Amino acid sequence: MLADSPLAVRIRDRLLALDSHNLRRSLRPPAGIDLSSNDYLNLSTDERVTRAFVEGAECDGVGSTGSRLLRGDRAAFHHVEEQFAAFKGTERALFFSSGYLANLAVLTALTEKGDVLFSDARNHASLIDGAKLSRAEIVVVPHNDLDALADLLRATPCEGVRFVVVESLYSMDGDLARLAEYRDLCRAMHATLIVDAAHAVGVCGASGSGAIEDAGIDANDCLSVNTAGKALGVSGAFVAGPAWAIEHLVQRARPFIFSTAAPPAVAHAIAASLRIIRAEPQRRERLRARAAYLRHRLNEAGIDTPAGLSHIISVVIGDNERTLTVAARLQSAGFDARAIRPPSVPEGTARLRLSVNAGLDEAVLDRFVRALVRALA
Fold it and tell me: Which of 297, 300, 306, 299 minimizes the C-alpha distance to 364?
């Protein structure tokens, strides 16, 4: 019987260990005022986006029925890829059904034996896993430390290509990478810059295309992975960059070649979302204002938050059990703020990861800060 097998015994021991450290996760649907999702611009429920999704399903069906290289391709995918490339300012873009798959694709298809990947210490799990699956040597770089990266680039032998892998906006701390300096360093060291733009696309930049735009970088001077399930409000992700790199992914990226394509309706919905982002910059402006207001109110209340301007604000509590208790108190008060614990963050840094969205107003944020002060007491 599988229930009595060595595997079952081992897994039960692992689950008990999670329980003993307050690290077991649970699945819980949203409830209360949103301070935890990545729906930064409130596009996931925008009527124009949902209508485009429904109309796309009526036009193309609810399933793609195969990989893009077989019968799963649709005109809607090509249209939204062209639309996104124009939005991002790149020669070409390629759509994947998730950001995780896109990161695996980039890091496994572009690297070869003899290459070296210089990966920021706080990169997302998908970048870490993609690096491990690649054939390149991995060098972990202290977080956002340009001097350390420069030293490691000079000191690490490399027979092939050097890759520098960073996020533009880090999801747990809300801090921004110094992308212009990374670009300059990569140019000087003949390295290729790869940027996970998941939490910046749709939000940063004059047009909303991301932090690469804010940094004044030609988006074809790097490869970027841009998720559509956060500020864009839908799902999937685009890899954007020069045409030669995107064509190589079509030919060699296993997560693209061997995955059933996303439902075509997703492409229709993303196209609508991109049109809204272009036409309504006030959403981004409102988001920035609300994030600044919440930071100000938290600091006034004596709650430490990292310096910064982004819409992701971490309140580090430290102890796992206390963090769960604080989150539960906030949820009882009607706020959906969730506990983030290791391994998502380093040991001893359990926290509330507060993500601001454009739909919050100052009165709600005031009530939240008061509830947080009570929860921390």
Answer: 297
- What is the Cα–Cα distance from 78 to 83, expressed in whole angstroms? 9
Q: What is the CATH number of domain 281-376?
A: 3.90.1150.10
Claim: this prediction has a pTM higher than 0.85: yes
Residues 6+ apart with CB under 8 A from 167: 120, 122, 123, 124, 127, 177, 195, 196, 197, 198, 199
CATH of 47-279, one of 3.10.20.10, 3.90.330.10, 3.40.640.10, 1.20.120.80: 3.40.640.10
> Each residue of 28-68: pLDDT tens digit?
898 999 999 999 999 999 999 999 999 999 999 999 999 99
Residue in 145, 219, 132 with CA at minimum distance from that of residue 178: 145
What positions carry a catalytic annotation?
A: 38, 124, 167, 171, 196, 199, 230
* Cβ contact 350:340 at 8 Å: yes
